[in-house]
Amino acid sequence: MRMYAGRAATARGARPLVVALGLAVALLLAGCGAGSRTPAATATLVPCDFPPPPSSVDVNVLAYNSSAIDPFTNSMVRSCSRDGVTLHHEPVDYAGQSQKATATLAGRYGTYDILETYGFVVPQQASTGTLHPLDDLMARYGAQTGLDRLNPQMREALSYDGKLYGIPMQAQTFVMAYRRDVFDRLGLTPPRTFAELREVAGRIQRDGGIRYPLALPLLASSDVATAYDAALGSLGTDYVDRDTGRPNFDTPAAARAFTELRSLLPLMDPQVTTFAQPAVQQQMYNGSAAIAIMFSGRMLDLTRPANSRFAADFAFAPPPSVAGGNVLYNTLSVDGWAIPENTEVDKDLLFRLIAASVGEESSRAAVPAAFPAREGMVTPASSPFAAAQLEAIGRASPPEPFPWTSRISNDTRPVVADVLAGRTTIPDGQRRMQEIATAIVAGYRR
């Protein structure tokens, strides 16, 4: 699950980012972009200033390959491998990165020196002392490296308990892609609610010649958790009540989130619970689907003629809300760089390398594949999907920046998958999820 984790003071249904970000502010990524197609050799060369170390230093960077993350990773590797410092980055997918990050943070000595991380997991990682707090380094170098021009809300997204643990590079939200030619032919408009989504997709299924017109990433081993939380958030409900600390899985909203997601299944390929985001992309590429909702980092690939004969036909809109409220079926994910506490490389040097990768030059070069943290990089004219991103940002559900959030998501995921697949009834699924979440929260309250 990839989720923005910033200020906790607002309840679901509020719009905490709209005023702060404004229309021209950049915020948008996850689990989330498409496979890398930009080798480091062709990456943007940017200034990377640091005093040469007394002896040669190897720096291992862990970051998953995506069209949204690669510009930052590749700029850092290319620009900062000099003066006795050599950066190493091996290709890895998101699942592989997650496994490697867990392993490197678990030991006394780690394998990696710079980690790509994201707001959803920072509270858990920071609460266990596995990430190095960056406040002192930010105070020392922030102004001279331009880090003071990174979006404050995105910096807060990578903070926990008042301390900064990550330098934000970019963020993503859900965007809806659709076949404009199919919509025009049938006289359809982009759906604004799940009810409209069912109606529009049903019309395409009946009259548009596409058997399974809707594509969502609902991979049982990962994406189903994100989907359920997005539906729950659109209904104005958190995993855990912010005031009482009581999990909300036994509420009517929790049941409705399941009902609404299950109502979409007849419009999707029967194998949907085996589909991650690349499979959803492929459905759009080959024309077997006409509507898809996925992270914005996947959208650029849809616009490339080399990927699909329908590239010129794709259009973009914000995702619908579940029930007509202001909060959309959506999730906001902020990606950034963190320094493991267990690295043996000088943390001052590592911070300077990170700062170079999120500078103005690399951030500008990352658009439109990424939505950089550096303010002013993205405008509605930046890409065919920028306007959809900008609207979706202000209508994402507020974050839940607590160490138990990612654990609840992970531990309840198999139950969500069982309920969506019909192996477990909705009431039984709710009961099991309530028990799981209650036990997790209790462990933090002891």
Structural notes for this entry:
This protein has 2 domains: 218 residues, D-Maltodextrin-Binding Protein, domain 2 (3-Layer(aba) Sandwich), CATH 3.40.190.10; 201 residues, 3-Layer(aba) Sandwich (D-Maltodextrin-Binding Protein, domain 2). The chain is an alpha/beta fold. It has 17 helices and 10 strands. A hairpin with a 2-residue loop joins strand 4 and strand 5. Helix 2 packs antiparallel against helix 14, helix 9 packs across helix 16 and helix 16 packs antiparallel against helix 17. Helices cover 38% and strands 11% of the residues. Strands 1, 2, 3, 6, 7, 8, 9 and 10 form an 8-stranded mixed sheet that branches.
Strand/helix succession = HEHEHEHHHEEEHHEHHHEHEEHHHHH
Name the beta content range: 5-15%
The secondary structure category is alpha/beta
What name is given to the CATH topology of the largest domain?
D-Maltodextrin-Binding Protein, domain 2
Number of domains: 2
Mean pLDDT: 89
What proportion of the residues is helical, as a percent range? 25-40%
Number of strands: 10
Distance between the termini: 26 Å
CATH superfamily of the largest domain: Periplasmic binding protein-like II
